Each structure stands twice: as structure tokens, then as C-alpha cells.
Amino acid sequence: MPKPSSQDLISIPCTLMRGGTSRGPFFLAGDLPAASELRDRALLAVMGSPDRRQIDGLGGAHPLTSKAAIVGRSSVPGVDLEFLFAQLQPESDLVDTTPNCGNMLAAVLPFAIERALVTPSDGVTTARILTLNTGMQCDVTVQTPGGRIRYAGDTRIDGVPGSAAPVKISFIDTAGSVCPAMLPTGRARDRLGFSSAGGAVHELDVTMIDNGMPMVLLRAADVGVDGHESVAELNGNAALKNTLEALRLAAGPLMGLGDVATKNYPKMCLLSAPSAGGAIATRCFIPHVCHEAIGVLAAVTVATACVLEGTVAQGLAQAGAGVRRTVSVEHPSGEFSVELELDPHGRQEIVRAALLRTARPIMRGEALIPAAILNRNNENQENCE
After folding, report:
1. Among positive and negative, which fits the CA dihedral 54, 235, 191, 228?
2. Which candidate in 21, 106, 247, 299 could, as Cys together with 357 as Cys, close a disulfide (CB 3.0–4.6 Å)?
């Protein structure tokens, strides 16, 4: 529960964590209001949204640093921890708890050990984590020599400077995390019609897919770019961004997501042939800003499209052969390798996905927010209980 800190401020314990290529405050579930409306008010105040610079909060003026995590022990048999991910935006007052985030997921077990939710073993510690956003489960393993978590190590991930100890994530079931199925239309490729700003109707081949993250994949060349442009160049391409948003709005209902105008998904991803020895090159939008790298579950979903028959990745991807494959997904900051195990009976299914991330705490303390945020409209502290 938030506690009074002064006459007009409330303090909320939190730990600022980096998980993969994302960053944000982590909270114990009991330290935030239970009511979702009050919880979201608190998170907006902590992050400093809505404000482009998030100058009055912890946000970093970018979607990748406008994230939060809420963690607690689980009462579900066989599950150790529950994790609720919250995506905020610098200039929006919306708090989205519907999608997953694999990068923030990487920091959940380290945070839980830091806050004594999990007792570490001597050597390595594994915990099963339930992501409450979509019901997805995964096993996360960290190094804990002598019963203490280790953060230093030799694992490098593109998009993060230096190296650190590995965090291994093995996903139990990612297919159809938000959509009704991995291929929500029942097809690996669809011809998607959309209207441009001038009212003209266009059609493009796309793959609408959700193997951990709802995404619309399309070939970069089909929208007039080569897919190897810089992030700044793509973010400055207003015509491209308008086209991608028109496609996204058209795809939402077809993917079983309804009207996605105010949602952070589906993510849009441009595909092109690899140029640095990987399997596929990507430029992802999250959903309106080009990602400096690629999200964990976005990488899993793109890698899945590379090994399925008939997707828009066919003819571009160099994904190898066999039931077990490592798919290297190129992105603006480097590459992201995903281990996939395909159904041995030849069905269009993925039975396992695994990858490595790194994580660490950056700062521990208390976030201070105006008391009026939670007392608005004559609500008092009892509303939090």
C-alpha cells in the first residue's frame, strides 16, 4: 500500500530494473493499490505521463523506458511468481496491461530474489512465472552461486552496453498469447486491404501472427523502403508511418483484437533479407515508433514466421532446416537469436522457444507521487484496500 511521505506526497517502494533492452520500476503487488483505476493513476504519476519528456517522473521519454512491472507470489499450483506488465507512453494517459513484454520478464526473477519472494539455490535458481496479462507461463533461470544472485558475466545482448550474467527464458506456451490463435485468420499469409490518407484503397500481402506478441509482418519493399534504414530515418518517414497505422487498424479486427486505435498492439514489423549473417532483417514499430532493437516476444514471433510455410518471410529468411533451429533476427542494434523447436509431426506449430537475456537492478528506493493523485474526486486511502 502507498504510504504518506509528507503532507502532500505518498511513497511507494520500488526497484528500478533493466530487463533486456527495456527499463522501468518494479513493484511488489501489495505496494500498489489493488483497484486498477487507482493503480494506473499511481503508475502514470510515477512515470511522469502524460508528458513528452516525462520530466516529473521516472520515465525515459521513450516507450522502451515507459514500462512498469508488478510482481507477487502465485497461488497457482506449480507456479512460483505472478507478473503483471504495464506499458505506458510518454504522451498518453493510458496504461496498457493487455500485452506481454519479454524484456521486462527477464528482470522478474532477479527482482523477486532481491525482495525475498524466492529463496535462491546454490548454483542456479529456476522459477516458473505466470504473466497475468495473457496467461503465458515460462521457466526463468538465473545464476545464484552460494545462494546469491550474480549479475556480472560474459553474456552480451545487442542494444545493451557491456556484458552480464545470462537470464535464460524457456516459454511454455506462447501461441495465441492475445489473439485467438498463433495464426488468427487461419492463414500464414493474407491480402490486407486498407485506405490511405487520400481515400484510395490499397492491398498488401501480410502475415498476421501471435506467438507471444500480436504482430503484422510485411515486406519492407512493399511499402517503398528497403528495410535497412536507420531508426531515425524511418521515424521521420511520415508517409510510411501513416501506411503502417492504416494497416494496423485494418488488421486489428481480423486478428480478433477489435478496434486497436488506442492499443499498443499489434506491433508492425518490416521484413527484408538479412545483411549481417542472420536469418532475417527487421524494423519493428511499437506500434508508432521504430524500435531501436526488437522486443523479446516480437523476436520469437518473427522467428516463428521464418520457419512456418507460406508466410511473407518465405523467400527472404534464411532459417535453416530441421526440427530444432536457432533463428538469428537482425535489428537496428544488432541481432537476437531465438531457439525454436518445431512440431516433429510436421504441423505448423512451435513446441518450444528459448532465449537469453540479461537484467540488473539500477536503483532501490521509494517513488514519491502527489497524494492528490489517489485522493481525486474525494476518494480516500480506504479505496486502495
Report:
1. negative
2. 106
Q: What is the pLDDT along the chain (385 residues), one digit of tens a residue?
A: 787 777 799 999 999 999 999 999 999 999 999 999 999 999 999 999 999 999 999 999 999 999 999 999 999 999 999 999 999 999 999 999 998 999 999 999 999 999 999 999 999 999 999 999 999 999 999 999 999 999 999 999 998 999 999 999 999 889 999 999 999 999 999 999 988 777 788 899 999 999 999 999 999 999 999 999 999 999 999 999 999 999 999 999 999 999 999 999 999 999 999 999 999 999 999 999 999 999 999 999 999 999 999 999 999 999 888 899 999 999 999 999 999 999 888 777 898 899 999 999 999 999 999 999 888 544 444 444 4
**219, 231, 269, 228: which is closest to 248 by C-alpha?**
269
Query: Percent helix, strand and coil across the chain, each rounded to 5?
Result: 20, 35, 45
C-alpha cell at 253: 479486427
Same domain, 26 and 88: yes
Q: Where are the beta strands (DSSP E) in the chain?
A: 3-4, 9-19, 22-28, 67-73, 81-87, 123-131, 136-144, 167-171, 190-195, 201-210, 214-219, 267-272, 280-285, 324-331, 334-342, 350-357, 359-370
The pTM score is: 0.80
Q: How many CA atoms lie within 13 A of 211 on its CB side?
A: 26
CATH code (residue 311): 3.10.310.10
262: containing domain: 190-346
Domain identity same for 145 and 201:
no
In angstroms, the first-to-last Cα distance of the chain is 8
Q: Are 338 and 303 in contact (CB under 8 A)?
A: yes
Burial 222-245 (b: 16+ CB within 10 A, else e): bbebebbbebeebeebeebbebbb
